[in-house]
Amino acid sequence: MNVLVVVAAFVICWGTLAWLLRRGKFLPMDHPNNRSLHVTPTPRIGGLGIMAGVLVAAVWLTNADLLPVVLAVFVLAAVSVLDDVRGLPVALRFMVHFAAAAACLFALGLTGWTWLLGMLIVVWMTNLYNFMDGADGLAGGMAAIGFGALSAGAWLGGDSGLAAFCAAITAAALAFLRFNFPPARVFMGDVGSIPLGFLAASLGVAGIQQHIWPWYFPLLVFLPFIVDASVTLLRRALRGEKIWQAHRSHYYQRVVLLGASHRQLALAAYFLMLAGAGGALALLAAPQYTAWLLALWLAPYFLIFLIIDWRWYRTRNEH
C-alpha cells in the first residue's frame, strides 16, 4: 500500500506538469532580471505538480497525526499560487506564514516558549527554502534528498505513516526534477518552495515532538540550505540591506556568477546534501558522537564560503 502511494505521487506530479507545459502560453512566467540567474522566460508552476502529488499522498494515507501539517501546507500553497500569478504584499505573505505555523504547531501539541521558538523556526525554514530556489535543479534536489532522509529516519523510528508521506514527497520531487534539472523547462515557484519549506520544518518539529528523531536530525538533513540562507541573511542585515528584497548574494548564486554551470552547481549541491543526510542517519545509530559530528559537518561549509568569498572579491578587484 505504501509503495503504491509513492508511485502515485510520482505519476501524478509528472502527469500534472506534462499537461500544464502543453498550455505554455497561459502559464505565469518567470522573466529574467538583474537579480536572477536564468536568461530565458520560464514557467513557474512546477510546485503545482509537487502539491498534486502531496495531496494524493495525504488523502491516500489519511494520517490524523499529519492533518494539521497538511491543512497548513495547502493554505500556504493557495496563497502562494496567488502570489505567483498576481503578486501579494510581503506583509500579507508573512502574516499567512506566521498564522499557518502558529496554528499547525499548536495543533501538534507545542505550547509556551517551545511553541514560540518552533513558530520562528518554521517561518524561517519556509522562507529560506524560497530564497534557495534560484538555480536549476537545486530546490528540487534538496526536496528529493531531504525528504528521502526524513522518510528513512521515520521508518527507523517506527512511524510507517510519516515514512510513507515523506517518501511520497520525495517521489513528487523526483518527478519535478525531470522537468527542472538543468536546463530547466519549469521552475518551482512559490507554490512549491513555500509549502516544501514549511513541510521540512513542521515535519521535523513533529518528529522531535513525537520522539521519532532527535533535534539535530532534521537540522543536518537540510543543512546545506539552512547554512547558506542563514549566513547570507545575517551578512545582508549587518550591511543594512533590505533582507526581504530579491538579490544575488547567496553563495550558490555566486558560484554560478563565478562561472559554474547550473548542472555543476546542482551536482555539487547534491553531494553536500547526500553527505548531510548520510551523516544525520549515521548519528541516529551513534548519538554519543553528536557534538563532534555537528562541528565536523559545519566546518566544511564555512571553508567553502571562505573560498567562494575569496574568489568573488578577487574577481571583482580584477575588473
Main attributes?
mainly alpha, two-stranded antiparallel sheet, 2 strands, 319 residues, globular
Written description of the protein model:
The chain is mostly helical. The protein has one domain. It is 74% helix and 1% strand. Helix 2 packs antiparallel against helix 3, helix 3 runs antiparallel to helix 4 and helix 6 runs parallel beside helix 12. The termini are far apart. The relative contact order is 0.14. The model has no long low-confidence stretch (mean pLDDT 90).
Describe the SSE topology.
Layout: H1 2-21, E1 29-30, E2 42-43, H2 46-61, H3 67-85, H4 90-107, H5 112-131, H6 138-156, H7 160-180, H8 190-209, H9 216-221, H10 223-238, H11 251-257, H12 262-285, H13 290-318
Antiparallel strand pairs: 1-2
The residue-averaged pLDDT reads 90
Rg estimate, integer Å: 19 Å
Tally of structural domains:
1
Helical coverage, percent range: over 70%
Gap between N and C termini: 59 Å
* Beta fraction: under 5%
Topology order in helix (H) and strand (E) letters: HEEHHHHHHHHHHHH
Strand count, sense and barrel status of the largest sheet are: 2 strands, antiparallel
Spatial shape:
globular
Determine the structural class based on helices, strands and strand pairing: mainly alpha
Number of helices: 13
Q: Uncertain segments of ≥5 residues (pLDDT<50)?
A: none
The spatial strand order of the largest sheet comes to: 1-2
Question: How many beta strands in the DSSP annotation?
Answer: 2
